[in-house]
Amino acid sequence: MDILKVVNIYSIVTSLVWLLVFICIYLKIGNENKSLIYYIRAVIFFILFLILGLFLKEDRTYIGIVFLDISYILLILSTEVFIPIKKRNVWVYTFIGMVVFIPFTGLSKQVFCYIFNCYIGVLLTFIGFQLLRTKKNHNNLIGSFLILWGIFNVICPVLYEIYEYDLTIYIINRVFFVFSEALFIIAYIYKMIIEYKLDNRNIKNIFNASSVGLELYNSKAELMIINPICLDMFEIENHNTVIGSNLFERFNIADRSLEQLREGRDVSFRVEYNLDKQNNNDNSLRKKKYLEVKINILGTNKLIPDGFLVQIEDISEQIYSSHKLEERLKMAVSSAKLYGWDWYIKTDELYVDPTFAKSLGYDADKFSDKGKTFFDTVEKEDVKNIHKRLTKHLEDIDKVYICEWRIKDAKGQYIWYMGTGSVIERDDDGSPIRMVGINQCIEERKQSEIELYNSEKRYRKLFETMVNGYARLEVTYGNNDNICDYRCIETNSCLSEILQIEEIQGKNMTDIITHEKYWIQLINKMLEKNKSQNTIEQYSRRLGKILQVTMHKFDENQIILIIRDVTTERNLENMVRQTEKLSAIGQLVGGIAHDFNNQLMAIGGAISIIKTKYPNKECSKYINYIEKCSNNSASLINRLLNFSRETEYKLVPIDLHSIINSVVEILERSVDKKIKIETSLNAKNHMILGDESQIQNTILNIGINARDALINGGQLIFRTYNMLDINCDKNKNGNHKPAIVTVVSDTGIGMSKEVKKRLFEPFFTTKDIGKGTGMGLTMSFGVIKSHGGCISVNSVVNVGTDFTIKLPLLDEKEYLPKDEHGKLLKGRGKILIVDDEEIIRELLGEMLEMLGYDVVAFGNGYDALKYYEKNINHIDLVLLDVVMPEVSGKELLAKFYNINNDVKVGFLSGYGKEKMDESVMDKLVGFINKPIDIKELSVKIKEMLDK
């Protein structure tokens, strides 16, 4: 019995050793196998069974031994070290060990020991084979020993019978128990140490191989392992400096995440981490990192964690890229002038992008009052439209809300915006809850639209008011794809006026120009030659107009026609050519007239000298004939000069009846014999003050127009009569000035009201091209008006026309007949004559000497200048011919003024003085037109010397 007690005491001690081993392992490496609670439970049962066995009676001590063996086996099973079993089965095995063998305690000692030893033997053998299957060294040793012990337990009852329950057999059994228990403790400690080292090594290898930062914390949240990625991430040179640091101190974990950890849930969050590279006080060198942190709770019971695994990923590049992308997006949105808004409809909460208010010059919180300020700022007319469009969208009538409106900026100017949006959330009933959208500035687009509208308006106005006809034609093809016609698809009103057709648009060209189909042929030729543009001019027989047509090939099937009425333009060109021709003739006539005047000057001068020196009555008759012919020739030369516009209008007393008679003589030579010309000159007073040639041309022009109106013959009548009051201005009272009225009547074709309205317009004519310039009556109107008169016309189609001319009569008091026997005005002084014609110099010098003047004459201007320089104080007047071969009169005038600024110079010329520049005329003291008689010369010289 002493040996039995020793064995039992040893068992209690080993149980306590077991408990101590478990506690030490737990404190050292933590609850790695997650089964400390089961270890403690197994040891407690083991101790209870021992106490139970010790306090039984001596004859029942074997029952305690039974419970001791069962508790040992349960201890092996509960550790889950050698044979992995489910934790929930530990209590099942324990219950079986307690319950199954309790009923056997009442049996005899022999029977109970037999049953128990067989059960223990089988169980130990089974456990031994399971350990051998793991193929681990420590398991193989323990497994083999347990198999031997199990076999011994099976044969132990037999040995008890053979050896009559010898205590040696029991002691051998207990030795097996003690030895196996010792081996088990040693193997378990060895296994824990090896596995701990292996686990640490594997964990470190896994940590080091990881592509993300990993940190392992124990249950106290103290850092145990940190991998190189984390060291580089936090720029830590020695990992020992952070080992043992607290998890919650390393990361500023938000309260919400802490709450999740307390609830046993894994957490994930982002942190900003600042690193100091050199100097902690140098903020300029600080670098900010963005980290994604995930904390996983380790352990089966996460409310009591065994540790924490922290995964850390550096997402700085993604954040920076995201920031750059956001900046680009903001720039894009800003440049596109897009501003978001979010409207919670039920609560009427409106959020508007603050940059929207800033873009208008307001504070950022301008529109933060549920939209009230927003709608107060929008143009009132547009607010109604916004509400209308919103209502349609909220009622799901419009799928998308789109509305354009104007809003006032801080400067008081209205800016155009377009709002777009849609409902993104509705309740179960379909009622809108939330709506989002954007406001986009469309000011530039609106301005462009306004400019486009104005441009189109201007274009349309220009299109409709342009003086050219416009037509866009569409090609019409026949059966063989040949061009057969052109349809007008767009025209303007001017085209209708030019072609004198009311409706053109939509019609075919063949229907428009039925009698002038050559226009279509011209267009076809342009297309055949593949020209993009062609311009032609054609005379329209139907219209009596010259039309210029410019054709543009618009595209493959369309042509643009620009049609201009160039009739007036071509008439002007013809008139310009005619004017140039007349100008050339005028220059020729002027040159001839100049030479004639020189000859007439000589003839007239000689006659004046003869009549003065030799007043022979017998010869005076013939001398007067010569003088009259000379004067008539001078008058003819003046008419030629007037034709060439080289003389000014000469207002002199003229006999209007005499002019009418001369016009009748001219017309009688040129009219058809079917036309009968009659005169009825009943005016008693027919003297007027005017330019004879201009009045004659005016009456002749009216007579020619009347002749042209008498196509089939008829009467042309000239009538005159006097009236007391000319009264040309109907809006004013008469000026009580007597007048002579000339009426030119014809029985021709007459004229319409439209023609009569435009009769005196420049270049207006009803005659065919080349038969009239349209300027005759215009010039006649101007001549009559310049003479203080007026002209009117009365006409009836197919009856005839009356032209009525009113001219003021010459006042008898103003009309003083020429005293042909008047005295000559003589004087004194020395006159220098410069003329290239010798006969002019001699005759003019002799006439001046007869008038009492001293004369010196030169044919060369330079000789005259030299003489004047030497005798500057003795020359009273210089007479210069205008046209001379070596130096002209104008050039000599300047040279004389260079010598003496007070010199008196007069011009002698066969041309009119209107050809002279005003600057030249201002320097002259007079102008003498060739020819001139001695009486007129005496007056002119006296006037010059008196200036």
Radius of gyration: 69 Å
How are the strands of the biggest sheet laid out side by side?
2-1-5-4-3
Q: What is the approximate shape?
A: elongated
Number of individual domains: 6
Total DSSP helices: 29
Averaged pLDDT: 76
Poorly predicted regions are 29-35, 55-60, 80-91, 277-286, 816-821
The major pleated sheet works out as: 5 strands, antiparallel
Ends apart, CA distance between termini: 185 Å
Query: What portion of the residues fall into strands of 2 or more residues?
Result: 15-25%
Gist of the model:
The protein has 947 residues and is an alpha+beta fold. The longest helix is centred in the middle third of the chain and has 47 residues, at 567-613. It is elongated and about 220 Å long.
What is the topology?
Blueprint: H1 2-29, H2 36-54, H3 61-78, H4 88-101, H5 109-133, H6 137-162, H7 167-209, E1 213-218, E2 223-226, H8 228-233, H9 247-250, H10 255-262, E3 267-276, E4 286-298, E5 307-314, H11 316-336, E6 338-344, E7 349-352, H12 354-359, H13 372-377, H14 380-394, E8 401-408, E9 414-426, E10 432-441, H15 443-465, E11 469-477, E12 483-491, H16 493-499, H17 509-512, H18 518-528, E13 533-540, E14 545-555, E15 558-565, H19 567-613, H20 617-643, E16 652-655, H21 656-670, E17 675-681, E18 687-690, H22 692-709, E19 714-723, E20 739-746, H23 753-757, H24 776-786, E21 790-796, E22 800-808, E23 830-834, H25 838-850, E24 854-858, H26 861-870, E25 877-881, H27 889-899, E26 905-909, H28 918-921, E27 926-929, H29 934-946
Parallel strand pairs: 17-19, 23-24, 23-25, 25-26, 26-27
Antiparallel strand pairs: 1-2, 1-5, 3-4, 4-5, 6-7, 6-10, 8-9, 9-10, 11-12, 11-15, 13-14, 14-15, 16-18, 19-20, 20-22, 21-22
Helix pairs in contact: 1-2, 1-7, 2-3, 3-4, 3-5, 5-6, 6-7, 19-20, 19-25, 21-22, 22-24, 26-27
Transmembrane segments: 6-29, 36-56, 62-83, 90-108, 114-132, 144-163, 169-190
Catalytic activity: ATP + protein L-histidine = ADP + protein N-phospho-L-histidine
Protein name: Stage 0 sporulation protein A homolog
